[in-house]
Specification:
Helix content: 40-55%
Domain Heme NO-binding: 2-160
Strand order of the largest sheet: 1-2-4-3
GO molecular function: heme binding
Strand content: 15-25%
Order of helices and strands: HHHHHHEEHEE
Number of helices: 7
Protein name: Heme NO-binding domain-containing protein
Shape: globular
Distance between the termini: 35 Å
Structural class: alpha+beta
Amino acid sequence: MHGIIFNQLQKYLRDRSGPSAWLALLNTQGLEKKIYLPTQIYPDQELISLISGIAGNQQKSVEQILEDFGQFIVADLFKIYSGMIRPEWRTLDVLEHTENTMHKAVRHSDRNATPPELLCIRVNQREVVIDYSSRRHLSSLGVGIIKGISAHYGEKTLIQVRHYQAANGEKACKISVTLV
């Protein structure tokens, strides 16, 4: 997992639980001396461990934390990728073009980066279906990002997200996003 995700998780936890929460989490997960650099790659299991620790501390499910975290990081994602997002785009447009713009740029700038593969099909003007494929099984993070994007565009109450989890062992799932 890319270090920038760990940096965003640290920012998220400080926002939600205060300035000492990150160090406390690292300690409880056996990572007390760990420093995450944004451009480095770290074991996926460390992220899963940290997310699980947050979930336990907040008495929420891992999926709930991933979704909330996904919504949280959208503001920074828009800052990073603002030059790739056309001004006339709205939620469904951003989703439709994520793989060929932002994810393509990520893979080009760092050959070791492995964002999820998104096959986005624009069913019609009001619906995008995403085949979300990743060995990490973090599609709830993607659902949170979708909800954060819709909030960014003031469409949160207009967007319906249906998440069809992958079966055990499968790395792909479907996410349907509809403008209602």
